[in-house]
Design a protein that fits this description.
two-stranded parallel ribbon, single chain, binds NADP nicotinamide-adenine-dinucleotide phosphate, Rossmann fold
């Protein structure tokens, strides 16, 4: 469906910006921010969407900070459940395709092999709970919607863990990162490539969109600093002191420890292997930090 008209919400967010830029190369894209549509006002969704012609609606909007969600659960519910449900109702009525983004934080984080799409969800915080309720509400209102769960995003449009680790290592020889929390770092550029394929594919239900491999925040940080050093950045250290999640006492919301998702279903849909997170990370850091 190369000529689909896309409406991308949350186009100021990390994933939303990358989706907007990448998909504009091949599709007719309308990009909205909170100014055009505030999902905390679900009652305003239908009227706002009636002003736009689209075939596919992409929703990367969410209240994404676990600590903010924990402190403001009503706000989290509006942005992560009721707003998305209203979007799904409109898409169902109009026959439009809806791609709604979700998270690995729907899982409990207990020791587990890879988490598959149909595995039991048991979120441990308000963010994860509202995202899971949002998944269910979207699929109930619009059964053909695609719920795309992503994990540990990094990319050109929002600083994330690798950028923070580089910033620290440029300033100090004492860099630490959590070693007992694991998932899959995932490139937003790769997510856009998968989405470009999925827009024209009749897949629905829950789908895991992540790179291949497994990492702790600590391994992700060490790999980042190794690549950054190789790129010639004047780091004060490339070694990262491992700490435990429990030592980060400033975090108010509980975090799940083990949320490594399987991307087997995505690989089958795409008909090819998905690259490892470390290869995608090397591409990102090279583009972002290598001196021209
Ligand atoms: N980042 C990750 O590592 C990660 C991991 C797993 C899953 N995810 C999921 O991936 C998706 C994209 O995440 P992201 O990292 O790109 O998030 P992000 O950078 O925090 O962007 C979220 C966007 O949503 C907008 N927004 C928040 N509340 C809104 C509301 N009530 N109405 C309209 N817009 C609103 C924000 O706008 P303002 O700038 O105006 O606040 C922002 O542009 C989310 O569904 C998230 O749950 C992300």
């Amino acid at each position: 469906m190369p000529s689909s008209r896309l409406l991308i919400l949350g186009s100021n967010g990390g994933l939303g910006r990358t989706l907007t830029r990448q998909l504009s190369q091949t599709h007719q894209v309308t990009a909205w921010t909170r100014a055009e549509l505030d999902l905390e006002r679900p009652e305003a969704v239908a009227a706002a969407l009636s002003r736009c012609d689209f075939d596919v609606l992409l929703n990367p909007v969410a209240l994404t900070s676990p600590d903010v969600c924990e402190a403001q659960p009503d706000k989290a519910r509006l942005a992560n459940v009721e707003g998305p449900q209203a979007l799904a109702e409109v898409c169902q009525a109009r026959g439009a395709r809806l791609i709604h983004f979700s998270t690995d934080y729907v899982f409990s984080g207990e020791p587990h092999d890879l988490w598959h799409e149909d595995d039991e969800t048991r979120p441990v915080n308000v963010y994860g709970r509202t995202k899971r309720e949002g998944e269910l509400a979207v699929l109930k209102a619009c059964p053909d919607a695609l719920v795309a769960r992503v994990s540990w995003l990094f990319g050109p449009d929002k600083p994330s863990h690798p950028d923070l680790m580089i910033e620290r290592a440029l300033q100090s020889d004492d860099v630490c990162s959590v070693a007992d929390k694991v998932s899959v770092p995932t490139s937003t550029v790769d997510v856009c490539e998968w989405i470009a394929h999925l827009i024209g594919h009749p897949s629905s239900g829950v789908l895991h969109l992540c790179n291949s491999g497994i990492a702790s925040w600590h391994l992700w940080a060490e790999t980042t600093l190794d690549i950054a050093s190789w790129l010639g950045l004047p780091l004060k250290t490339t070694s990262v002191r491992p700490i435990r999640l429990a030592e980060l006492t400033q975090m108010k919301a509980a975090r799940p420890l083990h949320t490594v998702m399987s991307n087997e279903k995505l690989q089958t849909l795409l008909g090819r292997e998905i690259r490892n997170w470390s290869t995608a990370l090397e591409d990102y850091l090279t583009a972002r930090y290598q001196k021209k």
